């Protein structure tokens, strides 16, 4: 709008100068009209010339964590013999500004280059914050200029190569979880694992190795052989986690990264990271347009698979959470702990509690995270919503579930490590 206004004003002055020159037989008005015409033509065509024979290239990471600051390297090259002035670099970076308003496909100004010599190049670094997890297509990158008079802006796509960026959900440290053991094939009884460490049975002796727990030294044998001997144990039970993620549309309250589904994804990623760091089995299930079924596994590769999936999921499902929990009950492992992420509307609580009762009947333990919907979305019936949350928590307590309540703005690190 400002460029058009400048152009119209200069056109008006030029036209006025020509009318004045025609009505007078003097050279000065003609000279003034010629100067204004030259300025008008220069302002219109010079920006287009500035962008000719210029190329730009962006180099940066393809993976990052939510909240992390990444650096893009931008290289601008002038293939012409004459220098270029006042060139702006623009790029399509949908992850910038996505925290509050979702993905933004508008062009972002990365910076301006005041001077590029003929047959020369300029390079600079652009730090950007990864505001929200997701899979983004970047670019194409382009150039813009309105130099010297700002009458017209020329744009060109100097780099048509696209780049993708995967932003993984931000995880927080978890020191311990109230998990229980799932029996193995040689299980001979119930073993409670409050620290998620597993249960074991004595299987033999071996020589002491550096790093062994001194409590496991078998002193009678050590005294007899005059050599440190430690006890070995055969695992009887190990904790395993099933993460049940609710990706229903009506279970997502809030905006941007301050929504219940984003909190749930962060919690799911952090719990999966804790399980893999403790060498526990974990699996992830969710119903959406693209159902998410990651089978039980452990280790770094399994954790990376979970992160890849959580980076791109959307709350676009229509399946009630109770349906997913019923499916889990059909193929659950006795002693398994199911992580519940509850943010669905109150009218579905009865069906959800019924499905959870089936899980408990199958010998499954419940770890429930209840999102206080009223804190994520300030509605007129906030008091009624809190009462519904309290009723849900009471029903979960009757089922023997370990419950945590999450509100908007809570520090999840503190909440999960109290």
UniProtKB/TrEMBL annotation:
One family name in Pfam for this protein: DUF58
Ranges for domain DUF58: 205-317
UniProt entry tagged with the keyword tRNA processing: no
Keyword Transmembrane helix: yes
Keyword annotations: Membrane, Transmembrane, Transmembrane helix
Annotated TM spans: 29-51
Name of the protein described by the UniProt record: DUF58 domain-containing protein
Organism: Methylomonas albis
Upper classification of the organism: Bacteria, Pseudomonadati, Pseudomonadota, Gammaproteobacteria, Methylococcales
């Amino acid at each position: 709008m400002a460029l058009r206004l400048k152009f119209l004003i200069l056109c008006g002055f030029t036209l006025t100068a020509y009318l004045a020159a025609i009505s007078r037989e003097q050279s000065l008005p003609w000279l003034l009209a010629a100067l204004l015409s030259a300025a008008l033509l220069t302002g219109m065509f010079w920006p287009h010339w500035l962008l000719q024979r210029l190329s730009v290239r962006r180099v940066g990471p393809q993976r990052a964590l939510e909240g992390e600051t990444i650096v893009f390297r931008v290289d601008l090259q002038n293939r012409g013999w004459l220098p270029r002035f006042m060139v702006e670099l623009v790029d399509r970076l949908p992850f910038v500004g996505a925290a509050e308003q979702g993905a933004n496909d508008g062009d972002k100004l990365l910076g301006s280059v005041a001077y590029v010599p003929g047959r020369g190049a300029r390079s600079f670094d652009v730090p950007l914050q990864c505001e929200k997890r997701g899979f983004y297509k970047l670019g194409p990158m382009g150039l813009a200029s309105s130099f010297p008079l700002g009458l017209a802006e020329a744009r060109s796509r100097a780099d048509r190569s696209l780049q993708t960026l995967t932003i993984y959900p931000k995880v927080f440290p978890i020191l311990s979880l109230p998990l229980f053991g799932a029996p193995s094939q040689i299980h001979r009884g119930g073993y409670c694992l409050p620290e998620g460490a597993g249960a074991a049975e004595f299987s033999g002796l071996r020589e002491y190795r550096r790093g062994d727990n001194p409590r496991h030294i078998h002193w009678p044998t050590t005294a007899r052989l005059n050599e440190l001997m430690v006890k070995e144990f055969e695992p009887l039970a190990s904790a395993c986690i099933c993460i049940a993620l609710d990706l229903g549309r009506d279970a997502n309250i809030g905006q941007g990264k301050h929504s219940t589904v984003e909190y749930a994804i962060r919690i799911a990623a952090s719990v999966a990271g804790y399980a893999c760091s403790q060498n526990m089995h974990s699996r992830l299930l969710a119903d959406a347009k693209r159902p998410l079924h990651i089978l039980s596994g452990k280790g770094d590769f399994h954790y990376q698979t979970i992160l890849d999936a959580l980076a791109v999921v959307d709350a676009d499902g229509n399946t009630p959470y109770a349906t997913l929990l019923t499916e889990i009950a059909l193929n659950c492992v006795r002693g398994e702990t199911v992580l519940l992420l509850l943010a669905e509307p109150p009218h579905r609580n009865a069906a959800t509690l019924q499905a959870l009762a089936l899980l408990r009947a199958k010998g499954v333990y419940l770890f429930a995270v209840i999102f206080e919907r009223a804190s994520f979305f300030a509605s007129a019936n906030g008091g009624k919503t809190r009462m519904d949350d309290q009723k849900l928590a009471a029903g979960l307590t009757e089922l023997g579930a370990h419950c945590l309540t999450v509100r908007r703005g809570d520090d999840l690190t503190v909440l999960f490590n109290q």
